[in-house]
Amino acid sequence: MEKIGAMSQDHLTHVLIIDDDAALTEMYATYLEYKGGMQVTAVHNAADGLEITRNTKFDVIICDYHLPDIYGTSLIRLLIRRAWSHKCPIILLTGYNLTNERMLVMPHKILYKPVLPSEMFKVIQEVTGTASCSQLTECTQKSEP
Predict the structure, then answer these.
(1) What local confidence, expressed as pLDDT, does residue 118 receive?
(2) What are 112's strand-pairing partners?
(3) Taking the model in full, what pTM does it have?
(4) CATH number of residue 43's parent domain
(5) Which DSSP string do the residues of the chain spell out, in sequence order?
(6) Among candidates 65, 55, 50, 59, which has minimal Cα distance to 89?
(7) Which domain holds residue 49?
(8) Minimum mean pLDDT among 49-53, 78-82, 119-123, 125-129: which range?
(9) What is the C-alpha separation between 93 and 114, in angstroms, rounded?
């Protein structure tokens, strides 16, 4: 398990990133902490993700689809069973077309790689309800064809 960035403060959005790509995780964590003012915890497999969520609550979880020990959709099913996590938005990050998978697991959002850190930040704000109206409008307009 890897703790990236600043220590917890009550007002920070606490993000858990579960992704085996260490470079990608570091890029997201750096942006979210220094540009977004969030606290980020990163783990690189499902087992560590399950372990850390046993005793730590998060405001949002970002989970990669293709993890080394289990598919992200299966992990999300397990995470949803946590007492606190049914209120925690979960974002599935993938490079695959998961139309059928979405119906089975229902994450709050699916983001298709590549995802810019700034877009990740906007989506986190959207699903946690921390974005201002102007930020949500901007995010929505950019994602429309």
Answers:
(1) 95
(2) 94
(3) 0.79
(4) 3.40.50.2300
(5) -EEESSPP-TTSPEEEEE-S-HHHHHHHHHHHHHTT--EEEEESSHHHHHHHHHH---SEEEEESB-SSSBHHHHHHHHHTSTTGGGS-EEEEESS--HHHHHHH--SEEEESS--HHHHHHHHHHHHT-S-HHHHHHHHHHH--
(6) 59
(7) 2-143
(8) 78-82
(9) 9
60 and 15 in contact (C-beta within 8 Å)?
Answer: yes
40: left (phi over 0), alpha (psi -120 to 50) or beta: beta
The C-alpha atoms of residue 57 and residue 133 are separated, in whole angstroms, by: 27
CB atoms within 10 A of CB 135: 14
Which residues have CB under 8 Å from 68's CB, separation 6+?
20, 44, 45
Distances (CA, A) of 41 to 48, 113, 131, 145: 11, 20, 21, 33
Domains contained in the chain, number: 1
Residues in the chain, overall count? 145
